[in-house]
Give the backbone structure.
Amino acid sequence: MEVVIQPNASAAADLVAQIIARELRANPRAVLGLATGGTMESVYDRLVRLHRETGLDFSGCRTFNLDEYIGLSGNHLNSYRHYMNQHLFRQVNIDLRHTHLPDGVAVDLEKECADYERLITQAGGIDLQLLGIGRNGHLGFNEPLSAFRSRTRISTLSPETIEQNAGLFGGPENMPRRAITMGVGTILDGRRCVLLATGPDKAAILAQAVEGPITSMISATALQLHPHCTVIADEAAGSRLKKADYYRTIFNHDPKWEKFRQPADNFSFYQPSSLPEMIK
Ligand code: GLP
């Protein structure tokens, strides 16, 4: 696992967008695993901007999202399909037929889960899996005690997750209680994982996920087993990491990060002049 601590949430999102943009430029037919949640909105903003300003091309890529609420159709304002259409898919030149989320209103939910796994395999597997983290350490909707070898399946949301996401539904009583989620095993099969965590609310769980013992009580600890996982945090989310100084040293000295290093005080994603350099 590698950990990068960026000075603020904006710089952290910039770095994630750069990593995805590089992946797409190197492999225009990349299979991207995508995530939802408030944290990801700034990443998608930046990808849309890269598409508009530098022609970042999504026409050949295919995407698979982590999860979807059971009982919500793609037209529902709180469905993750709606979120993805709004924040990314309708803003870039992706073929909507190449974008996949589990169908939360499928008649046969078990079949939907098995079909989703099959589609990922048929696409050649996921090249880069983007991840957020829930306050209980969930990835997608892999709640505590999710087996590390679990595959796409139905998950019952934990009380912490209901509390965390209820605001978007106008209260917990309106929230679905179940979801379809890629399994921890599905996520670990991705060739690269990139987890973004920002803000003080994520500090405690991020420290447990990165530096704590591996346990199925905290799904994100499974990422410690992944051969190529990058965790990107802002200072607030990284504030409880015991080895933060060491992670900074690596980022500042390892040649592989050279193209991504920008002095914090003169780096702004929104400076058009910085874009050509950024995406080399
Ligand atoms: C939801 C999603 C997760 C995401 C989490 C974090 O629960 N199922 O995949 O990581 O939200 O959301 P936020 O970024 O809003 O904190």
User: Anything to note?
Assistant: The chain is about 35% helix and 15% strand.
